[in-house]
Amino acid sequence: MELKYIFSFLGVYTILVMPGIMLAYCLFRDRELKEIFLLGNTLGLALAIFTGYFACMAGLARINYFVYVLGAQYVVSISLFLSALKSKPSFKLPGASSFPLIFLCLVVFVSRLIPLFYTQFPRGWDPSFHCIIAQKLLITGILPDNWMPFEPSAMNYTMGSHILLALVSKFTGIPVHQAFKLFYPFLAVLAALGIYCLALYFTDNRKISVLSFVSYSFLANWGSVDYYNWGGLPNMFGMLFLLVILLLVLKQPAGTGRVKNILIGSILLSAVYLTHHLSAVVIISLFSFYALLGLIRSGKLDKTSSAFIFITLLSLVLSFIPLLPFISKVGTITSTTALKYFDEPMILPHTALKNVGMLLSALAITGIYLVFREKRMGEAGRFFLVYWAAELLAVYFCLDYVYRAFTMLIFKENFTAFTPSRFLTDMAYPLSIFSAVCLYKVLEKIKFKGSFALIVAAMVMYGSPAIKNQCGPDRFAPKDAAGYEWMGKNTPEGGVLLVWDYWAPYIAWRETLYTPLPSSENRANEYSLDKLKVENFDSARAWLNKYGRKGYLPLDASVKPDLNAVRLTAQLDNLCLYEVK
Fold first, then answer.
1. Distance of CA 120 to CAs 123, 128, 164, 406, 532, Å?
2. Mean pLDDT, range 227-253, rounded to an integer
3. Of 461, 162, 154, nearest in space to 328 by CA
4. Are 254 and 456 in contact (CB under 8 A)?
5. With b meaning 16 or more CB within 10 Å and e meaning fewer, what string describes 35-62?
6. Who's near 573: CB < 8 A, 6+ residues apart?
7. Where are the domains of the chain?
8. pLDDT at residue 61, rounded to an integer
9. Torsion angle of the four alpha carbons 321, 323, 137, 503, in this order, in degrees rounded to the nearest 10
10. How far is CA 99 from the centre of its chain?
11. I need a labelling partner for 180 at 20 to 30 A (CA). Which of 72, 304, 443, 538 fits?
């Protein structure tokens, strides 16, 4: 990755989120600057997704017409910002007490940035299909409704984060896969800051808040450090939006302030719908079961439950038009692998603890005990935080164990639904706060100067090996990616490259023998199912003949193929491309 990409990305990112930052100052200037920064960045991202989605749906010729939509955001936000500057309280720069948190934000940012220089393409399988969607959006300027030229399948995946990728790539010239990588450090800092602000609300203790920040950033594996290993960018967006919604709801004032928070929360939840369906399922289930438990406990809805309900209903109204195409396809879910997911084996309890983070899990379990024994937070906060973790664990258990047992009993097959590991991934957020409570108890026992800084430094060091592991060898040598790009240029449109690499379709921009489709997509057509059965050259040739397709086979120059079956069409050094006869 080139250094100039970072500065180009930062410039466009700032332009995208600045309207949100100005609006956050206008609406929440009674809050601390760190909260305004968090709310502003998150609101700016949500507005870019929300308005960009509508712009693309309206078919505004090309995605570059988004500049007019963004211009309208600037007109409104600047007007409100200038008006707000005339009234009190006035803007205050961060004091010396904020410097440690700013320093930790920089540490997190750099720790997530360093691995990006060691890989040409993002790690994991998921980024390959995300980059295909964003590239299709960039090429056409409108929301794609199919997976052509790779598969004759309809597009079911929601595209909010891909709009941001396309916008950044469009206005900076950064390749889509590089833009994908660069979102990681920015979102990691914002998520950690969200954990800090929530922990401060729950405990009213700044040391616990800092420990929560560091626990999430360096002790949590799934849901934090591990995001880069599998490419969960949409999930990162969804959980960031959730953190800010919780901050708005749990710290909601009375009167018009409550209405304001509910409105902003509904915009954020709308952005979740348009970004990641599974995150939306997580959030809606979290809100729904919380309201239900409140009714069971007291016979009425408290203000938190009612705010969750209002936000959910208003968000559905705001995003009803973009959601219509997805609602109309609900009946096709049985044709996807969403409810019949074979690719994730059962996660045993000890493996689950290890994947979430063994130290984080141990500290969090102890922290839960301390929260109840010593009543370190209010009853409402204590109940919600425990409920948050317990609900995610319960849904994971039902999907990975109960649902799987049912399918084995009824269908005699071992499969699950909705990727249960994602619910474990999302547990990193509440568990980080419980972990910090335990660590703070340790601090109370260690009474010597500098113990707090020492524990924070030790936590950062503990998480460093996991980040270092992401700096390992790239699965792609530069010549491999260049080879796929060359193959694409020498394969005519409509030709099929006879390779199985999941990055090949994006790099070559040609159909291959394998298209990385997420579980939400319908691959249940004869053409695609037959292609999945291709195992070797002979079966590939039979498949090509059956459907009247032209195939192109890349081989090393040292390999001598049967010239009765293929003919040479192009050569680059030791790489030969043959057309299948």
1. 9, 12, 20, 42, 28
2. 93
3. 154
4. no
5. bbbbbbbbbbbbbbbbbbbebbeeebee
6. 557
7. 3-87+98-469, 478-580
8. 47
9. 180
10. 29
11. 72
Q: Give the β-pairing of 566-572 and 496-497.
A: unpaired
The count of residues in the chain is: 581
Cα angle for residues 109, 112, 115 (degrees, 5° grid): 140
**66, two tokens:** 């988004």
Report the distance separating Cα 157 and Cα 574, nearest Å: 39
Provide φ and ψ at 577, rounded to 5°: -120, 120
Segment holding 299, helix H or strand E? none
Q: Model confidence over 25-43: pLDDT tens digits?
A: 999 988 889 999 999 999 9
Residue type, 209: S
Which sign, positive or negative, has the C-alpha torsion 283, 287, 288, 293? positive
CA distance 563 to 561: 6
Kindly list the distances between the CA atom of residue 532 and the CA atoms of 32, 342, 493, 512, 525, in Å, as whole numbers in the listed order.
55, 15, 21, 11, 11
Phi, psi of 447 (to 5 degrees): -110, 75
Rounded distance between C-alpha atoms, residue 425 and residue 418, angstroms: 13
The dihedral region occupied by 61, where left means phi > 0, alpha psi between -120 and 50, and beta the remainder, is: left
Do residues 99 and 456 touch, judged by C-beta distance below 8 A? Answer: no
Q: What is the Cα–Cα distance from 80 to 446, expressed in whole angstroms?
A: 49
* Through-space distance between the first and last CA atoms of the chain, rounded to whole angstroms: 40
**Angle 80-83-85 from CA coordinates, rounded to 5°:** 110
Strand 551-556 and strand 496-497: the pairing is parallel
Sheet holding 575-580, edge to edge: 511-512, 496-497, 551-556, 575-580, 566-572
Phi and psi at residue 102, in whole multiples of 5°? Answer: -60, -40
Phi, psi of 211 (to 5 degrees): -65, -35
3-class DSSP assignment, residue 556 = strand
Alpha carbons within 13 angstroms on the beta-carbon side of residue 480 total 12
Give the SS3 label for residue 114.
Answer: helix
| Contacts with 215 (C-beta within 8 Å, 6 or more apart), sequence order | 195, 360, 363, 432, 433, 435, 436, 439, 459
Both structure tokens of 391: 């609900």
Count CA atoms closer than 13 A to 305's CA, side-chain side: 18
**Residue 570 host element (H or E):** strand 566-572
- Here the tokens at position 212 are 């929560």
**How many CA atoms lie within 13 Å of 320's alpha carbon, on the beta-carbon side?**
5
What gap in Å lies between CA 101 and CA 338, rounded to an integer? 41
Whole-angstrom Cα distance, residue 65 to residue 54? 12
**Cα–Cα–Cα angle for 64, 67, 72, nearest 5°?**
150
Mean pLDDT of 243-261: 86
Per-residue pLDDT of 455-507, as tens digits, reads 999 999 999 999 999 997 777 766 788 999 999 999 999 999 999 999 999 99
pTM here is 0.94
Q: Which of 81-85, 189-193, 465-469, 553-557 has the highest mean pLDDT?
A: 189-193
Q: How far apart are CA 513 and CA 306, in angstroms?
A: 50
